[in-house]
Amino acid sequence: MHIQPVILSGGAGTRLWPLSREHYPKQMLPLTGDQSLLQRTVTRLEGLAAAPERTLSAPLVVCNEEHRFLVTEQLRMIGHSPWRVILEPEGRNTAPALTLAALALEERTDQRTVMLVMPADHVITNLPAFQDAVVRGARLAARGSLVTFGIVPTSPHTGYGYLQLGAPVAEEKAHHLDCFVEKPNFATAQEYLAAGTYLWNSGIFMMNSQVWLRVLKHCEPLIVEACRAAYAAGRHDGHFHFIDKTFFAACPANSIDYAVMERVTGREQIMATDAVVIPLTVGWSDVGAWPSLWEISPQDVAGNVIRGDVISLDTHNSLVLAEHRLVATVGMDDVVVVETADAVLVANKNRAQDVKEVVSRLKQDNRAERIDHRRVDRPWGSYEGIDRGERFQVKRIVVNPGAKLSLQMHHHRAEHWVVVKGTARVTQEDQIFLLTENQSTYIPLGVRHRLENPGKLPLEIIEVQSGSYLGEDDIVRFDDSYGRSQD
C-alpha cells in the first residue's frame, strides 16, 4: 500500500488577520508552537510508513504561486523535501486543487496510490490515533471507497458542516456516509450533538487518484477538462509545476464536498460509489478564527492566553498577542487583542468571525496591510520597511549567505545602499566590487545592478530609495536565480 500525502495549502486565513496576510497566510504561521501549521501537517505523518506493507511518499503540496518559496523553505527547515509543488495561478477551491494533484500522480506507472488529502492549516494533537485512522482509511480507499474523516463533536458548533453516520463498516471502525449537512443553526446543532450520529466535517479525505478522477468526471466534467488542459499546458521547474493561467481561469470553482461527496451519498446519490466516514477523536481544530486559537492554547488562571510583552490587569478569558511592543489591558473580558508591526486588532471574542470584514475593507481601500507584513520574506532573504515619505522610503534588507537578488534596473527610482553587517558583492552595469561594513554605494535610476552575499553570515544593508514611484513592480529583471518576474 502506497500513501501519497496531498497537502492543500491554498487558504487565506482572513479571520486571523493581522497575523495572517495574503502573502503570508495562517498555514505559514507558528500559531501553536515552534513549527508552522504547514510544518506540523507534514511532520504528523512521520513514522506512518514503519511497516513492510506500507510506503509513504514525500508530500505533494498544492499552493498559490506567490507561496512557492515559503513552502519549500519551510519544508527544508524541518528536513523534508516535497515530491511536487503544484502552483495555482489563482484559487479555485479544493476540488480543482485535488484534481491537479491526481493528474500529477498519473505520471507514475503504479496507479494504486492512495491519496491522503489534508488542509495545511489544521491542528491535530493525538498523532498515534490519527495515524491509526489513516491506516484504516488507506485500506478502505485501496478497495475503491471515497473516505472522509469526521470529528466527534464536543459542542453544538455552528461553524462546521456535519456528516451523518450510516451503517457501520465494522472491520475498519468506520461507517457508510449517509449525507453531508450544511452548517446548522444552534438549535439544530444541539439536536445533532444529542443524537450522537453526526460528526464535524474535518475536510480530510483519502481516495485512489484514479477513482477521484473517474467520479469527478461523472459529477463535474468541466473541472476535469479544465484542470487537465491547465496541467498539460503548464511548465515544470524542479519541484515546481506551474499551472497554465488561461486554462485554469476557465475551471469552475467548487469544493470537494459540493462537487462529489454530497452527490455520492444519501438520497441524492447519483452513482454507485462507496463513501465512508471514519470518526476521529484526535484533538482537532481548524484554527478558523481567533477564538479557536484561544480554545486550544494554554490559559492562565484568569483564562487568558498571553504571548509577548503583555501586562493584563483585571482581564479574563481573553487572547492578547504582542509581537513588537508592550500591550497593556485593563478591565477587559472576552476580547482579542493582536499587535503586529503595522496593525493592531481589538475585537470582542464573540465577534471575531467578522475580522474577515476588516480584510474586505482593506481590499476595498487598496491597503497594503491586507497583503504583506512590514517584513516581507523573499527566497534570497527578507526586507522590512523602516520609514516612508513623499518621494522616498527606507528599507532594511537581509540577504542570506550565498544568496543574490536578481540583476535588475528601475525606471522611476534611485537607490543608496549602506552595509551595516557582513560583506556585499555589488554589480553596477559592467563593474563588480565588494562593500564591507559602513561602506556604501549609489545606484542611479536606470542602471543595471545586483546585490549578492558572498559570505557565510547574513548580509544586512540599509537601502534608501528616492524617486517619483517606489512600488515593488518597478523592476525590470534581466537575470534571476529563482525564475521570478517580481522580487
Q: In short, what is this structure?
A:
The protein is of the alpha/beta class and about 475 residues long.
Would you give an account of this structure?
- 40% of the residues are buried.
- α6 (209-219) packs across α7.
- A hairpin with a 2-residue loop joins β22 (381-389) and β23 (392-399).
- The protein has 487 residues and is of the alpha/beta class.
- The strands form 7 sheets. A 6-stranded antiparallel beta sheet has the order 21-22-23-30-25-28, with no helix packed on it. The protein has a 5-stranded mixed β-barrel with strand order 7-10-8-9-13. A 4-stranded mixed beta sheet has the order 15-17-19-20, covered by helices on one side.
- Helix content is 21%, strand content 34%.
Spell out the blueprint of helices and strands:
Elements: E1 2-9, H1 37-43, E2 55-56, E3 60-64, H2 68-77, E4 84-88, H3 94-105, E5 114-119, E6 123-124, H4 127-142, E7 146-151, E8 162-169, E9 174-181, H5 186-195, E10 198-208, H6 209-219, H7 221-232, E11 235-237, E12 240-242, H8 245-249, H9 256-259, E13 275-280, E14 284-285, H10 290-296, E15 305-307, E16 310-313, E17 319-322, E18 327-330, E19 335-339, E20 344-348, H11 355-364, E21 375-378, E22 381-389, E23 392-399, E24 407-409, E25 413-421, E26 424-428, E27 431-435, E28 440-443, E29 449-452, E30 459-467, E31 476-479
Parallel strand pairs: 1-2, 1-3, 1-5, 3-4, 4-12, 7-13, 15-17, 16-18, 17-19
Antiparallel strand pairs: 5-10, 6-14, 7-10, 8-9, 8-10, 9-13, 11-12, 19-20, 21-22, 22-23, 23-30, 24-31, 25-28, 25-30, 26-27, 26-29
Helix pairs in contact: 3-6, 3-7, 6-7
